[in-house]
Amino acid sequence: MTTRDAVDAVTADVRDHHITLDETGLFNAMRHIGLLCHLTARVAADAEYQLAPNIADLPPARTLGASAHHLGQAIAHYTQALAQLITLTTARQDTLQPQPDALGHHSSLRVHLDDAGRAMAAARAALEAQQHHPAASAPAPAHRHDSSAVRRRA
Asked: Distance from CA of residue 26 to its chain's centroid?
């Protein structure tokens, strides 16, 4: 799986497993954080390997570093959203005071999840931008020599 494919797979998982205000939403948030952590570690490792010579299938280290940066931001936003989600799923709802407080937690939760989504989109965009640079494309095939010319020299 390419780095772009891995980012797309995690993005699809995040899109398909919504954050709800119950135990399932809490599980999904933890799942998203875990996937993002694994993906960020993979992208950072790919950047490290790209610094070594003769690694042809990876995007440039600078591109991978930019993508890892954005994925790290997504993890930070998910972590902040997790705190709000825990508060909302464990708060007592039988009194009137938690209801106004819940509005602030809902708002903060939404902001952090939206910011995480933007950070993931930026990680993908960084990888996509690399794809359009001609210098980053696959090397041209080797020039074919006429085999009869080689035989005449020998």
From this structure: 20
